Each structure stands twice: as structure tokens, then as C-alpha cells.
């Protein structure tokens, strides 16, 4: 089990939704948490809601740009001197039949969902080697279950699952633990949704936060490398 007190975590896409829910849980468990997003003002507002202070750091970073992620990691190391947990959470989704999907939509998903997880790992891997830390990606059940109008999103999430599992095999020799979390329906702002009571049946962001904590508390001899999680019961109209 990782001693969580004063460990340092970095969450991409941490200003709302799953990333924010995970940040809340990690801070409550005693970790210091950096969150990032493309717009600094939005991330700073989220950091204020999380309590700001010495245990929260707001960072501007576009995960599609490797240089942004390198700068974010350096800010974390300058602030706290270590990095123990990374959650590559930032993601976007566009859903349309493949013959109607635009090139812009395709490339935005590839650059954010797939290239982004590589940029985040590439920028943080040396720090994780030093801490014998934990790298996690936020994939989706769409990474194993394809569906109509999901060609682009499926492609990226299948890619995230494959990338993370291969990275796990590459990095475990350094005592870095690597896992991918694959949720089904989650009550978030994803794809323009405004969470409200209609989403009560779905997984809640804080549930993913509890799952991340469970992974961090797992005995180091055991690695849940791929975790599927779904609502207990589907929505009943």
C-alpha cells in the first residue's frame, strides 16, 4: 500500500467531471494535487473550489502539446519536488457516422485522447521512475465495445487501452504501476451534458475517485492493470 500522506498527484482535465471528482477524493486522503486544463482561468476556479492553499496547484496545459505537459510536470517538481501519481484524464468526444465525421473532429479526438496520454506519460515518466509511482489512464468501455457513430471515439479509446497495457509491461521493471480505468456511463459534462437528477443512475465522478484511491491502496505485489466499471443498473425509462 502506498503511504498517501503528502504524495503528489497530477490530473489532466481536472477542472470538472471525473478529473475534478478524483482530485476531491485525493485531497481528502492527504495528497497534494495538481490539476490542469487548456484554460488557466477555468482551472484556477476549480482549484479555488478544491480549497487552493498548499495542497492544490492549478496549471494551464494542452495535452495535445508535449511541451505544455513538460512545462506542467516541471512546475509540479519545482513546487513539491516529487511526482507520485499521474492520471491522464483529459478527453473529448464527437459522435457521428463515419461518413459524416469531419477531419477536424477526428484529429481533435486523436490528438487529445490518444496523443495526449502519450505526452503526459512521456513528460512524467522520469519523475515516476524516481518515485516508483503510479500512472493511470482514463479510457472507457468504448475501448472494448464498438458502436455505431463511435468510429473516432472507439478508435481513440481502443488505442488508449492498448497503449496503457503495453506501457504497463514496459514500465513495471522500474516499479512503476500502470493501470487503465474503463468506465461506462458517468454523470459528467462530457459531450455537452449538464449533470442533474436524470444522471443519478450513472457512475458519479467521486466513485471514480474512490476507485483511484483503491488502486493506490492495493498491496504493491498486486496490479489491477485494466479495470472495467459500469452502472450497477442501466437507466430505466
Fold topology:
Elements: E1 8-12, H1 17-28, E2 32-37, H2 40-50, E3 56-60, H3 66-80, E4 85-88, H4 103-131, E5 134-138, H5 151-171, E6 177-183, H6 205-217, E7 226-229
Parallel strand pairs: 1-2, 1-4, 2-3, 4-5, 5-6, 6-7
Share in helix? 40-55%
What is the alpha-carbon Rg in Å?
17 Å
- Gap between N and C termini: 42 Å
Annotation, overall tally of beta strands: 7
Largest sheet: spatial strand order: 3-2-1-4-5-6-7
Structure described in brief:
This protein has helices spanning 17-28, 40-50, 66-80, 103-131, 151-171, 205-217; strands at residues 8-12, 32-37, 56-60, 85-88, 134-138, 177-183, 226-229.
Characteristics:
alpha/beta; seven-stranded parallel β-sheet; 15% strand; 237 residues; single chain
Question: Mind explaining what this structure looks like?
Answer:
The model has no long low-confidence stretch (mean pLDDT 93). The longest helix is centred in the middle third of the chain and has 29 residues, at 103-131. This protein is α/β, with parallel strands linked by helices. It has a seven-stranded parallel beta sheet, sandwiched between helices. Helix 1 (17-28) packs across helix 6 and helix 4 (103-131) runs parallel beside helix 5 (151-171). The chain is built from six helices and seven strands. The chain has helices spanning 17-28, 40-50, 66-80, 103-131, 151-171, 205-217, and strands spanning 8-12, 32-37, 56-60, 85-88, 134-138, 177-183, 226-229. The protein is globular. Helices cover 43% and strands 15% of the residues.
Amino acid at each position: 500500500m502506498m503511504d498517501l500522506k503528502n504524495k503528489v498527484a497530477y490530473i489532466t482535465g481536472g477542472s470538472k467531471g471525473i478529473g475534478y471528482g478524483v482530485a476531491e477524493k485525493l485531497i481528502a486522503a492527504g495528497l497534494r494535487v495538481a490539476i490542469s486544463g487548456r484554460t488557466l482561468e477555468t482551472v484556477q476556479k476549480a482549484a479555488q473550489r478544491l480549497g487552493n492553499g498548499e495542497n492544490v496547484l492549478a496549471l494551464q496545459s494542452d495535452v495535445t502539446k508535449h511541451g505544455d505537459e513538460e512545462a506542467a510536470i516541471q512546475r509540479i517538481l519545482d513546487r513539491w519536488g516529487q511526482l507520485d501519481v499521474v492520471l491522464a484524464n483529459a478527453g473529448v468526444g464527437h459522435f457521428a457516422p463515419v461518413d459524416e465525421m469531419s477531419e477536424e473532429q477526428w484529429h481533435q479526438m486523436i490528438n487529445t485522447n490518444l496523443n495526449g496520454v502519450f505526452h503526459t506519460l512521456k513528460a512524467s515518466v522520469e519523475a515516476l521512475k524516481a518515485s516508483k509511482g503510479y500512472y493511470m489512464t482514463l479510457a472507457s468501455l468504448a475501448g472494448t465495445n464498438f458502436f455505431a457513430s463511435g468510429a473516432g471515439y472507439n478508435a481513440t479509446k481502443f488505442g488508449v487501452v492498448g497503449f496503457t497495457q503495453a506501457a504497463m509491461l514496459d514500465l513495471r521493471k522500474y516499479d512503476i504501476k500502470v493501470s487503465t480505468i474503463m468506465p461506462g456511463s458517468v454523470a459528467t459534462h462530457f459531450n455537452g451534458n449538464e449533470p442533474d437528477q436524470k444522471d443519478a443512475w450513472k457512475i458519479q465522478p467521486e466513485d471514480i475517485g474512490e476507485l483511484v484511491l483503491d488502486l493506490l491502496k492495493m498491496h504493491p505485489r498486486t496490479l489491477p492493470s485494466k479495470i472495467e466499471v459500469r452502472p450497477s443498473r442501466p437507466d430505466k425509462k
